[in-house]
């Protein structure tokens, strides 16, 4: 079976590395046999600044790293040069190209503007898009990477952290995890 290409922006990584300081949970996700993590140079550079980066650097080195300099060309008709240089938009462009090529992708985006952009302009990709909280739920309920207690513990850690999300979303996802 072909692996699912997981294409997160840096917020996903920073959540585990710095916000909740659970790099071991991130390692569990990144080593799951059905996933192939795909990163571009912008996202890799953004997460390499994390104080806990060394704890997952091996997994980043084993991920698919895309060094293509012109991913911004894919999205240039839709946004400004400043927007294109952000990790979210690099992840969107990579996911768009891989989806177009028929790959199974999961695009992990938390930035509201980036999510709106995908929903409005790349409707075919929007069904493959999920936020960090929703991805943790998938890791528990769909892929059994985490058991329910572990997933809920991660979500409670996020709720107490500086990760910006509406607490109601976390509470709703915890209920969904309890029922899966």
**Which structural class fits the helix and strand makeup?**
alpha/beta
Give me the count of strands: 5
Tell me the strand percentage band. Answer: 5-15%
The total tally of domains equals: 1
Reading off the top of the CATH hierarchy, the class is best stated as Alpha Beta
For the biggest sheet, the summary is: 5 strands, parallel
Ranges where pLDDT stays below 50 over 5 or more residues in a row are none
C-alpha Rg (nearest Å)? 16 Å
Count of runs of 4 or more consecutive helical residues: 12
Mean pLDDT: 89
In order across it, which strands form the biggest sheet? Answer: 3-2-1-4-5
Distance between the termini: 25 Å
Write down the CATH topology: Rossmann fold
Per CATH, the architecture is 3-Layer(aba) Sandwich
Q: What do you see in this structure?
A:
- The chain is an alpha/beta fold.
- The chain has a single domain, classed as Rossmann fold (3-Layer(aba) Sandwich).
- Helix content is 57%, strand content 11%.
- It contains 12 helices and 5 strands.
- The chain has helices at 10-19, 23-30, 41-47, 57-62, 72-75, 81-84, 87-100, 112-121, 123-126, 132-141, 148-160, 167-179; strands at residues 4-8, 35-40, 64-66, 105-108, 129-130.
- A 5-stranded parallel β-sheet has the order 3-2-1-4-5.
- The longest helix has 14 residues, at 87-100.
- It is globular and about 40 Å long.
- The chain starts with a strand and ends with a helix.
- The mean pLDDT is 89.
